[in-house]
Amino acid sequence: MSDLNTTQKATTVRSQTSQQPIQKTMGNTEGPVSKEAPQKVFRKKKTIIRFKQVIWYILGLIEVLLVFRVILKVLGASQASAFTNFIYSITAALVLPFNGILKAFALGDSILEWSTIIAGLVYLSLAWGFIYLLELIYPISPDDVETH
Fold this sequence. Notes:
Layout: E1 4-14, E2 21-32, H1 38-75, H2 82-95, E3 105-107, E4 110-112, H3 114-137
Antiparallel strand pairs: 1-2, 3-4
């Protein structure tokens, strides 16, 4: 079964002096047939857009936490500080899969953790890939997101 709806389109050209047709053409025009109600389609697209926004929001939150970790480590922040300890404890699980890929560079109290930087890049790539996959499966044009 085809997703296209075929309708006939007729064009008639008449001369100004005579009411008889000079040329009559017939053709088929094809257009997509929507099987769902417009409100349901709108809600579905709105949900997909909202889901993409949630993914970007979560990624942004993760990236901010990882940037705080990098900055605190590079500045040699004291782990006795509650804020520093809080950031390190939250981001430890995010960085754990990437520990050991590259050695951390230390100079005095300053530490450059490559695993944190790699984690940020991997999470960014995963989020971007997931969003791209959603766009392939459920394409949404700019016309679909216009406010009414």
